[in-house]
Amino acid sequence: MPSEFELIARYFDRPARGALLGVGDDAALVRPGPGMELAVSTDMLIEGRHFAAGANPRALGHKALAVNLSDMAAMGATPRWALLAIALPAADENWLAGFTRGLFTLAERFSVDLIGGDTTRGPLAIAITILGEVPDGLALFRAGARPGDDIWVSGALGGAALALAARAGRATLGAAQAASAGRRLDEPEPRVELGERLRGIATGAIDISDGFAGDLRHVLERSGVGALVHYARLPKAPEFADLGDEQLERDCVLSGGDDYELLFTAAQSSRTEIETLGGGLDIALTRVGAIQPGDKLVLLDARGAAMTCGGGYDHFAS
Amino acid sequence: MPSEFELIARYFDRPARGALLGVGDDAALVRPGPGMELAVSTDMLIEGRHFAAGANPRALGHKALAVNLSDMAAMGATPRWALLAIALPAADENWLAGFTRGLFTLAERFSVDLIGGDTTRGPLAIAITILGEVPDGLALFRAGARPGDDIWVSGALGGAALALAARAGRATLGAAQAASAGRRLDEPEPRVELGERLRGIATGAIDISDGFAGDLRHVLERSGVGALVHYARLPKAPEFADLGDEQLERDCVLSGGDDYELLFTAAQSSRTEIETLGGGLDIALTRVGAIQPGDKLVLLDARGAAMTCGGGYDHFAS
Fold first, then answer.
1. Which residue of A has its CA nearest to B25?
2. Is B127 close to A118, i.e. CB distance below 8 A?
């Protein structure tokens, strides 16, 4: 069996072109550019909670990094460097080859260097820390939404939760729909370029990891405002189209989580600019409501009646 | 049961005085000082591997941060910011209160801010990422040892491994010795000030986490040199004094790991400066051997005969 150090050398020790020092010492060394602030975030994925036992290792490598890249997108930061702490039940080289292929393929797309980490034995757990750069004063925060701002959402919502429901037997999807919803769950696309381009435009931003309603509430709480949202305007994943299960659709779209789309607010005067931006990036950007004074989230259905919806995902409530 | 967000607010969300933005957004924001490089490292602790089930949570909070501070010390970096990713089997508030007391007490001693993290449910796993600053060009590396350099060790070796052996029934210690060895294992003291003061003095450095011999080998490999070490000169934890078990002592001192002392190399011309430094910090600094040309680690016993010793700790070999 290869040793811990052989595994690191074989699978994790790649040249870190954008770092002063990468894998192999007690720490990595990086130097943020002049005039740059450093955005730092960490996310942990646990087998049986964030992914099923036996999950495809390549997809898992993609997702473990993607959820962290998504945090950079929500800050308007350009991801630069990542560290990986991983506990593995065994030194399974096939698994590691797949996992690192998924991880490094995504990392290379965004010019992110893996600069450090820790490899140990234990129940499968993956914690990635991401570091990114954002020009001084231009980071996007949850706490910037103002009454009158539009509320925007990128892409489409609910597809990841629908895939999860289908795998649990709570929904029946055709093969093509199961596959495309499954990709939303297993291989989310972090909205990095969108986040970068929203610097100076978005007044508040968050990535939708816990569900639209819960994540919007985080923005409202931090900003000290309320919101009015029209459910009919929310962009729904196309896999819901033929399903005819309104309750499931609503649960997935509002509270499903794992979408990794961006939810952001912006002044009404930015509408044209944002539409042009979405067109240029080929990402659907949809206006779904407005920020209001107060502290309430009001959700209206297609007939203008108030809807109730649960909060976001809570790891200790289930 | 408190929600994930209530737990974060109650236990982890402390003012981050040295950061632009701390816990509570998609990422934290920090700005390294002018002329500073950023040292970044991550370490993961897993129940049943790095600590026993039922371990004292306060000590665990201390140790989880201490092992990361030790990596900063080995780089000559000043620790500034930490992120905590933690998987917990349940929202046990007594446990969390103890864990965060241990963590924050140590963090405050070194003016380290907890700026972010991730809290989830799962088998107990703790991954901390530490960020520190070091003036441009002054970081300590494993790869700087040169033939003729002295090899130095801080503090005393083997005590942590001895405590582990005693708990496993492989050694019998008196109550006072069990307690003091136990503190070496459970609450190691990271050598942060020593690492900072060794900038410009040490030619190579590493912290002893996997055992003296294995960690020295990392320095030798990275530096492309060999070494001659006199076992009799190695500083041994005082808890070995009355034990009379030479084999166990040798195993613990050479291969035990978990000591978190610094092993460093320096030119012979630095001897007086290093002795003065150790006196000022009240840390024993012991010269244990010399760097040599070649690639061999030669260990001599008290009679000048070559000793064999195993490697360091390998998470996938046991």
1. A142
2. yes
Residue (of B44, B124, B29) closest to B84 by Cα position: B44
Give the largest Cα separation in chain A, rounded: 64
Residues near B129 by Cβ (< 8 Å), separated by ≥ 6? A40, A42, A83, A85, A129, B40, B41, B42, B68, B82, B83, B85
The reported pLDDT for the residue numbered A313 is 52
Starting from the edge strand earliest in sequence, which strands make up the sheet with B150-154, in order?
B202-207, B262-266, B150-154, B285-292, B226-230, B297-300, B306-307
* B125 min Cα distance to partner chain A (Å): 8
Question: Nearest to residue A15, comparing CAs of A145, A148, A135, A112?
Answer: A112
Return phi, psi of residue B94, to 5°: -60, -45
Chain B contact for A141, CB < 8 A? yes
Tokens 């040892």: give the residue.
Answer: B145
If one counts every other C-beta atom within 10 angstroms of the C-beta of residue B190, the result is: 27
Pairing of strands A28-30, B150-154: unpaired
Which residues are CB-neighbours of B147 under 8 A, at least 6 positions away? B225, B291, B292, B293
The tokens for A229 are 């949202």
Task: Work out the angle between the directed axes of helices A175-186 and A159-167 (0-180°, nearest 10).
Answer: 110
Task: Spell out which residues of chain A touch residue B38, defining contact as CB-CB under 8 Å.
Answer: 29-32, 38
DSSP β-ladder status, B285-292 and A28-30 = unpaired
Q: What is the pLDDT of residue B318?
A: 46
Q: What is the pTM of this model?
A: 0.90
SS3 A127: strand
Strands in A150-154's sheet, in edge-to-edge order, are A202-207, A262-266, A150-154, A285-292, A226-230, A297-300, A306-307
Between CA A57 and CA A68 the distance in angstroms is 17
> Please, is A273 exposed, middle or buried when counting C-beta atoms within 10 Å of its C-beta (0-12, 13-18, 19+)?
middle
How do residues B77-108 score in pLDDT, each as one tens digit? 999 999 999 999 988 889 999 999 999 999 99
Is the CB of residue B83 less than 8 Å from the CB of residue B117? yes
pLDDT digits (tens, 9 = 90+) for B165-222: 999 999 999 999 999 999 999 999 999 999 999 999 999 999 999 899 999 999 999 9
Residue window 202-231, chain B: list those with CB within 8 Å of chain A: 205-207, 222
| A272: Cα separation from own chain's centroid | 25
Q: Which helix (H) or strand (E) holds A79?
A: strand A78-88
Our CA-based measurement puts residue A127 at a distance from the nearest CA of chain B, in whole angstroms, of 7
Amino acid sitting at position A103: L
Q: What is the ipTM of this complex?
A: 0.88
Using the Cβ of A28 and the Cβ atoms of chain B, whether some distance falls under 8 Å is answered with: yes
Q: Predicted confidence band at A318 (pLDDT cuts at 50, 70, 90)?
A: very low
- Nearest chain A residue (CA) to B138: A29
